[in-house]
Specification:
single chain, alpha+beta, 50 strands, 21% helix
């Protein structure tokens, strides 16, 4: 009987074993099919596969292990729930109700949900909840007229813009790290996101931003130092002592520039001395002054240096005297000693002036010392020689390796390969500089360094890869967890970097898709061993923004509107990430204001400014709360601004002075980008008033070539209109052949490398206004074209209107909704009514004819009201275009340059009816300006931008002739 019982047990066990094997086989086959066909929503990660599956029939659990590709997607609570639901639906009946856990990249998919998106308990190992920096920020701009409480105030962020020019050791020459494609190279292209957009956004949110590459595009560099060994200019360093404090030499070395060119291993911060003085609580006691001899008027970054001494104070007071007034800073000298410390960028006049200098006071709330060393103005040219030669480019275009040496970094930080491999050194120095700066801080407590509390880093790159079907390659994120036992320097779980990468990719895709008519691709999040994500002591991510090798990506990438959108998405990601890390609420800084106008006030010698705040449809917190009005007097710089609560402001002015204004919106999260710049002037002997209308809003990519056979960008047709400036262009595209995609398609020249190409400064009412002022007897105000279109500014109040169109035109970029029409329907109605009421209208712009030649209605407006018609686009060669008429010979720039935006192919226009030509292009006698003198109104239409006339005297003479034509019965404008 016992044998029979055992036999039955063995039989049942065998049947159970066969049953289990059959179920396991069925589960494995179904899961293999599930992962091989799995396609996540809105992300392209490639094909996934099942690694293994473990079924415990006793505990009723299933552990499913997917390959790492499965982890490349973003996980959200709803994503995880859907995955489990879909898996349960395909499992065979006997195991449908088992507890299932899916693993990938060594973690359950629940664990890979970023803290930001979790509904319940947060993963504290990835947060900074127990890490608090309690000292003063590295640098604080105390003259800022508003307070940031829900932004990035007190936070320190590191980021950098991919590669730069470097010395190729085995070829004994300097070269780029990436090829020249589609008019740019990665080394230059990514800078056009970081410098004009992302860094200002982060600083506007209150952050201290460090980048290991030079940030200033100014080619000049002036260093003023107590050790003036090489001072061959009128720059001056001064010290003033008080009764209680005098300046003394520190025990630590300081900066001294003993040579023009530096070689491997030389550190200028070891060659000089530094000075210190005891602090006092009262103002204007002891101070040090640095007065630079500026070689040419312009914008210069200001860097200070000092030594961190045992009794240094955290509130060293610096004053920067510049063209717009005085900016005040507090610098925490307990940290960051022995390197360049960025304060800000300011406008300085040429020469040595008492209103252009930096002052360090010994005033402090703390008992201790302040330290003075060199002050640097401007980014300068590369001065690190490799192989006996320098790069020949501005420092901002060089790799981080060379900026680090000039900034006093220790030799092992920038030369781990001891001068034998600059490429690898340049890749590693970005992270090593961050670690050296942050060493000793709460975020990197064990590594020696300068104590700066940098708490995250981001490396922005573009990637390779191409499509032949005009699809977008899109954005890739990279992070590293398999290093240092999965911990960052402060003990934080390295998966904090995955959370950061996820936020970047999520925001980028959402904002780009919402703003542009483009199916932007989100690619994978790789957990891989890259130097820029492995070495940093803090959470770090590489963002491969797009493919510089793919035409569809670059068609968006060259668009300044895309650069703003992508940079704002990156800024919002950083804001959201850091505030989540510290369990803090955040507010996104507002968008720029619009509908800006300036008019004369009801009271004598007053101006009334008005504008409208703009809500952000992508971010409900980005609502304006207050506004800052910045004022510039004459040719000076802008002041520190005045905070106002409402979207209007009245101020008193002095007749005879040109005033300029710009406005920003602010909230608790920070400050927006500025508005366009408007100007106003009250003549002491006014005989008439002029309204200047700024209609030049356009920013755009170069002309797009997109045919079945060709693709690319034609700089000769239209180099585009950058926001303020463009440092991304290397040269004209040479190969447009689509068949060469991935090979030679996009190959480009190098004629624009090192040139900071002028773009739309949004400051042209001032140029027009200065010409009006010089003529004499005319007052003027100005407004945006939107203010005229919506009726908030009445043209009929002004006998003369000056409509600025610059390079405005509908540029055919169908990827965005922004509309840059020269004369919109509402503007046509307003100008028609103005002319018929007896107005005098000046219009200038390069595309006043061609942009209105697209419909019968538009042609009727220009021909019947403005009295001209489009003839052709001017096709000439050379750097400049000659124009003659009104008794003068003038020139405007045709090619990209650093002084003024280029007018590549301006229109030629013909007069209608009784109108007559008054200016022509030299060489072909094609008409460049047309005037109409009617019984009811007068017009003067220029088919080139007035502000592009190179000589100021020429602009004044032309404006004088036009104003005389408008005001005199026997007008002094004659047929050309």
């Amino acid at each position: 009987m016992k044998k029979l019982y055992l036999s039955i047990l063995f039989l049942l066990a065998g049947v159970g074993s066969v049953f289990s094997q059959d179920v396991e086989q069925a589960v494995r086959e179904r899961l293999q099919a599930f992962f091989q066909t799995y396609i996540p929503v809105n992300v392209n990660i490639g094909t996934c596969r099942l690694d293994s599956v473990l079924i415990d029939f006793h505990r009723k659990t299933i552990r499913i292990y997917a390959d790492n590709t499965f982890s490349y997607q973003p996980f959200r609570p709803e994503t995880v729930n859907r995955i489990y639901r879909d898996i349960k639906e395909i499992l065979p009946g006997p195991v449908t109700y088992f507890d299932i856990t899916v693993f990938t990249d060594g973690h359950s998919i629940n664990e890979l949900i970023p803290n930001t998106y979790r509904n319940g308990k947060k993963d504290k190992s990835r947060l900074f909840t127990d890490i608090h920096y309690k000292d003063a920020p590295w640098v604080t701009r105390t003259s800022r007229p508003f307070e940031i409480t829900r932004g990035l105030e007190g936070r320190h962020i590191a980021l950098w813009q991919s590669h730069g020019k470097y010395y190729i050791n085995n070829k004994d020459k300097w070269g780029w790290q990436r090829p020249r494609l589609f008019c740019t190279s990665e080394d230059q292209f990514i800078q056009s996101f970081i410098l004009p957009y992302l860094i200002p956004m982060l600083e506007n949110a209150g952050a201290n931003v460090f980048t290991p590459r030079e940030r200033d595009t100014q080619k000049q560099e002036i260093i003023v130092d107590n050790d003036d060994n090489r001072n061959t200019t009128n720059s001056l360093y001064l010290e003033v002592k008080s009764r209680k404090a005098q300046w003394e030499k520190t025990a630590l070395p300081g900066f001294a520039q003993q040579k023009r060119i530096y070689t491997e291993g030389e550190n200028p911060f070891h060659d000089g001395t530094a000075r210190f003085a005891q602090t006092e609580k009262k103002k204007n006691k002891a101070f040090a002054e640095w007065v630079p001899d500026i070689p040419e008027t312009g914008e210069y970054a200001v860097y200070v240096s000092y030594q961190s001494l045992p009794n240094s104070v955290s509130d060293a007071k610096y004053l920067v005297f510049h063209n717009g007034g005085v900016a005040e800073f507090k610098v925490n000298q307990r940290i960051g000693g022995g390197t360049w410390v960025y304060l800000g960028t300011f406008t300085f006049d040429k020469g040595s002036n008492d209103y252009g200098m930096v002052v360090l006071s010994n005033e402090s709330r703390e008992k201790g010392v302040v330290c003075a060393d060199a002050v640097r103005f401007g980014g300068g040219m590369g001065n690190i020689a490799r192989g006996g030669q320098v790069s020949g480019l501005p420092r901002y275009l060089e790799g981080a390796r060379y900026s680090a040496q000039w900034a006093g970094m220790p030799y092992p930080v920038y030369a781990g390969y001891k001068g034998q491999n600059d490429l690898s050194d340049d890749i590693n120095v970005r992270s090593r500089t961050i670690n050296y700066l942050s060493g000793g801080s709460v975020f990197n407590p064990k590594e020696p360094g300068l104590g700066v509390p940098l708490e995250m880093s981001m490396a922005l790159h573009s990637d390779a890869g191409f499509r032949t079907d005009d699809r977008i390659v899109g954005t890739l994120g990279i992070y590293t967890t398999h290093f240092n036992d999965g911990k960052l320097a402060a003990g934080t779980n390295r998966y904090a970097s995955r959370d950061l990468a996820d936020l970047f990719l999520t925001r980028l895709q959402q904002d780009i898709r919402s703003t542009f008519n483009a199916d932007w691709t989100r690619r994978s999040m790789w957990n891989r061993n890259y130097s820029e994500t492995r070495l940093p002591a803090v959470p770090s991510t590489i963002v491969e923004l797009l493919s510089h090798q793919n035409f569809a990506d670059m068609r968006l990438g060259h668009d300044p509107k895309f650069k703003f959108t992508a940079s704002r998405a990156l800024y919002k990601s950083i804001l959201q990430y850091i505030c989540t890390q510290h369990n803090k609420e955040y507010v996104v800084q507002p968008l720029p204001v619009n509908n800006f106008s300036v008019r004369f006030g009801k009271k004598k010698n007053t101006l009334e400014l008005s504008w409208q705040g703009v809500d952000d449809p992508l971010e409900p917190t980005a609502t304006p709360r207050e506004y800052i009005v910045y004022t510039r007097i004459g040719r000076g710089g802008f002041d520190n601004g005045v905070r106002v609560s409402n979207p209007f402001h009245t101020l008193k002015i002095e007749p005879g002075i040109v005033y300029s204004f710009k406005v920003t919106a602010v909230n608790r999260g920070g400050e927006s980008f500025p508005s366009e710049i408007l100007a106003a002037y009250k003549s002491k002997h006014e005989k008439a008033r002029v309204l200047i209308i700024n209609g030049f809003d356009r920013i755009s990519s170069p002309a797009v070539i997109n045919t079945p056979d060709e693709a690319g960008f034609d700089l000769t047709k239209d180099p585009g209109v950058p926001y303020l400036y463009d440092i991304s262009l290397c040269g004209s595209q040479l190969n447009f052949d689509r068949k060469e995609a991935g090979k030679r398609l996009g190959e480009s020249g190098n004629e624009y490398e090192g040139i900071k190409i002028a773009g739309n400064t949004f400051d042209y009412p001032f140029i027009h206004g200065k010409a009006i002022q010089t003529v004499g007897g005319y007052s003027f105000t100005s407004c945006s074209d939107e203010a005229v279109e919506n009726g908030s500014v009445a043209l009929e109040e002004y006998p003369i209107a000056d409509y600025i169109l610059g390079l405005e035109k509908t540029d055919g970029n169908l990827s965005r909704a922004t509309y840059y029409k020269t004369f919109s329907s509402s503007m046509q109605r307003a100008l028609t009514a103005y002319c018929r009421s007896g107005g005098n209208l000046l219009v200038s712009g390069a595309y006043t004819g061609s942009d209105m030649n697209d419909s019968q209605g538009n042609r009727e407006f220009t021909q019947n009201i403005l009295k001209y018609r489009f003839d052709s686009s001017l096709q000439v060669s050379g750097e400049h275009i000659g124009i003659q008429g009104l008794g003068r010979i003038l020139s405007i720039p045709r090619l990209p340059n650093e002084r003024a935006y280029p007018v590549t192919t301006p229109d030629c226009i013909r007069p209608m009816a009784t109108a007559f030509p008054v200016m022509t292009y030299t060489g072909g006698n094609l008409p460049a300006a047309v005037a109409y003198k009617g019984n009811d109104y007068r017009t003067f239409i220029m088919s080139f931008p007035f502000e592009s006339i190179r000589e100021e005297a020429g602009r004044t003479a032309v404006m004088a002739s036009i104003l005389h034509f408008f005001s005199a019965d026997n007008a002094g404008v004659h047929r050309e």
